[in-house]
Amino acid sequence: MPTYHARYACEWVVASEEGKCLGMPGTRDLVVVGGSAGGVEALVRFVSDLPTDLPATVLVGLHLSREVRSMLPGLLARRSKISVVPAADGLVLVPGQVVVGVPDRHLLVVEDQVVLGRGARENGHRPSHDAMLRSAALLRGPRTVGVVLTGLLDDGSAGLTCVERYGGCCVVQDPADAAFPDMPRNALRAVPDAAQVPLSALTDEVVRMVNGEPAASPEVDPEQHQNDLSELASALGVNNRLPDGSVVGVPSPFACPSCHGVLNHVPDDILRYRCRTGHAWSAEALIAQQDRSVEEALWAALRALEERADLADRLATRSTSGGRDWSAHHYESRRDDARKSAEVLRHVLTQTTERSVPDEPSA
Predict the structure, then answer these.
(1) How far apart are CA 170 and CA 64, in angstroms?
(2) How many C-beta atoms surround the C-beta of residue 219 within 10 A?
(3) Exposed end of the chain (fewer CB within 10 Å): N or C?
(4) How far lies 325's CA from each of 309, 310, 345, in Å?
(5) In the 8-state DSSP scheme, what is residue 151?
(6) What is d(CA 78, CA 74) in angstroms, rounded to the nearest whole number?
(7) How many CA atoms lie within 13 Å of 300's alpha carbon, on the beta-carbon side?
(8) What phi, psi does 147 have (nearest 5°)?
């Protein structure tokens, strides 16, 4: 286990006893930015506008496939006026630097260092924006500026509520300006007081917040604080048990799509779930994953039906050749039933069904 995790465990104990975040008065010196679909273009625009004298570190997260090597650090470096580096365990956070997350690791902070968490995925993602934002909020409190950009579903919403809970500033790209408005729209539903700005003004707004005076660290309900720390521990890949030995939340009737364990309902303003091994799901991400699971099951059923029809056809042909007319008729009947069922199932699977969440009616 990396020594950074051990250092974090000591800070966790201190935070648990104090019941408040570890952020100290000073400047807002940590900016955390998360995006997904359409996020490359948004990040390039955001980073290219950062000033050379930025007195903060910028953490950048993008949903990345673990099968590919990320080209994002090089892409951002070519457009940035300040240093851009890929995240690495133990990397010290310094002002005027952009740290870019890497595939298949949560981008987290421990005091003044980067930790690449190997914990369970959140909303099906690693890196997860919720985990990244939660980490920054817990360790830097009011010194944090959290930013959610374009993307699908709602990763980042729960993390942004954590930034707000610990006194940080929240900024969301205007959904009308986003290539994919789901993530910004859901983030604004979760944190209605977040600054909502178009991409063209986003960097200026973030710089204004960085140069502002942070508020004092707010007092957070001790039970909520313990829950937040436990969720951060899940991302780090360490023991995520609460002090009484339990796990966050109460059992729900739902199973985790990743490990099939029981999902606990996490007490939060956002409807969220987490299993005992650490996989976390918002309700929206969970239903999207269930849709994929159902589709996968239906394709498997279609394959089985087509194989059954083919096998029954071969048995019918063999029976006819052997003069077993009754058996031939029996297998032909089974073949025809399987083909009819397969045809119905294929029709269901190949229909184009638009799945969207309707906008809430205006007051």
Answers:
(1) 23
(2) 12
(3) C
(4) 18, 19, 30
(5) -
(6) 6
(7) 6
(8) -130, 130
Residue 340's contacts (CB-CB under 8 Å, 6 or more residues apart) are: none
Compute how many other C-beta atoms are within 10 angstroms of the C-beta atom of residue 194. Answer: 21
Cβ–Cβ < 8 Å for 69, 95: no
Q: Is 125 helix (H, G, I), strand (E, B) or coil?
A: strand
Residue 31 CB partners (closer than 8 Å, separation 6+)? 56, 57, 58, 59, 144, 145, 147, 206, 210
Tens of each residue's pLDDT in the chain, 363 residues: 334 444 454 454 444 445 444 444 568 999 999 999 999 999 999 999 999 999 999 999 999 888 777 899 999 999 999 999 999 999 999 999 999 999 999 999 987 899 999 999 999 999 999 999 999 999 999 999 999 999 999 999 999 999 999 999 999 999 999 999 999 999 999 999 999 999 999 999 999 999 999 988 899 999 999 999 999 999 999 988 998 999 999 999 999 999 999 999 999 989 999 999 999 999 999 999 999 999 999 999 999 999 999 999 999 999 999 999 999 999 999 999 999 999 999 998 887 444 444 443 334
Query: Which positions are catalytic?
Result: 36, 63, 155
User: Structural domain boundaries of the chain?
Assistant: 3-210, 255-352
**Separation CA 167–CA 141 (nearest Å):** 6
Instruction: With CA atoms as reference, report the closest residue to 202 among 154, 169, 247.
Output: 169
**CA dihedral angle for residue 233, residue 236, residue 239, residue 244, rounded to 10 degrees:** 0
- Assigned architecture for domain 3-210: 3-Layer(aba) Sandwich (3.40)
Single pTM value for the model: 0.85
Distances (CA, A) of 317 to 118, 306, 332, 335: 55, 17, 9, 11
Does residue 127 have a cis bond before it (omega within 30 degrees)? Answer: yes
Cα Rg, the chain, nearest whole Å: 25
